[in-house]
Amino acid sequence: MSYFPYQYYREGQLESIEVIKSCIENKQNLIFEATSGYGKTVSALSASLEVAEKLNLSVLYLCRTKREIEHVIDETKKIQKRKHFPFSFLFSKNELCLFYQSQNLDNLSLNILCKYVNTFNLCYYKSNCYFLDQQILSKIIFNTENLESLLLQAKIYHVCPYELLRRLSLSSRLCIMTYNSFLQDLLFSNFILSSQGYSKTIIILDECHNLLDILSEIFTFKIKEKDIEQSISEAQRLGLHKLVGWLSSLYPLFNRICFIVDKISAHDKSLIKSELKSFNLDKINDLQNMLSSCLSTVFITSYKSLPYVAKNLIKIHTFLNYLLLYLNRQNILLYVDTNCKEKILTFINVDPTIEFSFLLNKFWSFIMMSATIGSPKIYSTILKLDPTKTKYYSISSQDLIKKIQIIIDTGLTTKYKERTVDLFKKIAGRIYNICTILPVNIGVFFSSYKVLKETEKILFTAYDVKRPFFKESPSMTLKEADKICSSFKSYKNKGALLFAVQGGRFSEGENFQGGEMRSVIVVGLSLPPPTKQIFLRMSYIKRTFSQNAFLISMLEPAIKKAVQSIGRVTRNTSSSIVFLLDSRFASKSIFGLLPEWIQKNAICTNLDDNKVEKLLNNFSSFSLQDF
Description:
The chain is α/β, with parallel strands linked by helices.
């Protein structure tokens, strides 16, 4: 293996590399499931790069988060020390733009503005890229460890970091991106994959268990009445008087659509079509054309150093695009969010795999990887994967059975109806007991921020917790999350406590190794609350797939979140203990959906009456002295 950077292979790693190589060489697709810490990233990279060199292909590697990109870059640089090859990475434009960095623009507005900036050659950051020496370009990339260091280097040389990376990707054997940046850039036709194109590119999709949620989030659009009001004010401010009248006509249309969707039927598109016919579909097309013309005019005649950003007009333009998509595509649905004081009309793509599977089929082949695929049959059905061209390959490590003990607590459940003060007292008591027995770094992953907050309140009121405490919050920045994670890891020899949520920043993609987290407590099953969006998706699945809609939409995603949280301890070489605090994990329907290694190593018991220490002392393969 000329691209494998390590001296030794882990159990089953060489076999998996050969499977990946064989699939790519035969233009077959692969679903690859292996536990966290197994080495999926380096296996997929080394195998695909070897075949790519042999067959003159390129490799595109997609990650879920920017933090995961850094891990892939790290592995890539290790491979490069063994065998050099050109590689690049790319973040979304709104994270890289220096020209509009003070404007705090959304990706949609920025992409449209960037198009005009390039048309009239106004961005000196991009212009400077054409005069930059190739050696300096390579130096910038080589010295880049993360997003911050890239931006710093780009500012020093006064060049556009996005354009640098985009140009570099054209000549790269490997390009690394997040799902969001790849798909959003595709929407705006900014990203050119490589000079070879899709048909000569292998695509690797990491952490692909989240794929449906990632796609749904990207293709969701929201608009409220206030957005129309602000677009009218913006048009008046810009002197676009004819446009003001046209925009005003959207008020009754917006309110009528909201009424039909919310009060009559969210499923009957014929009612909306009838309403739009009375509004006149040609009028929508005319309004779109006028908006495009006005946006161009505003940009060209802007007298400021930075062209004016007509964000509200751009949003109306997008609203009209989604409205036409809704009429023409069965998988685009509407609902009205009435939780806020004002109505929010939301377009959702309940089945984004229609577009995504069409895109995947353009590639030479794809490799999907995760520690939590779940049922391969359900997964393939939902993502519309061709069974004749797609192989499933799973690695079950016997080593995990030996070193990780799973304890399922049957003495409580976090079902919504059971969430009382007594329940949170029970949860807090169990966490405190575990903390007093295990002087190691413990990660506690809750089913929601609400359960986290209520448990935290009781834990620090009723108990004297004498260990450093860290907590995830929904609004924290990437920089804040990095700081919390680094601080928590630094206590691995003393023992700290981290409160986080399942499916959050710390439960997926974050690596804890060498004792940085030796015990995990999973509190509850993270079933999503019943929302209009969930019900629309379930209804669509029933009509389209004839599958168990509850299993696909709610239960399987919740189990995957729990298993991902458990996976934070699999990178340890020493013994670890996992507690699942919810009796539902022991039920027949859910226990059977857990990975085989967890089922084989699970003990179901009621942890009432301080049973934790007694239970741990009875393990033949464990000793509390190990902790």
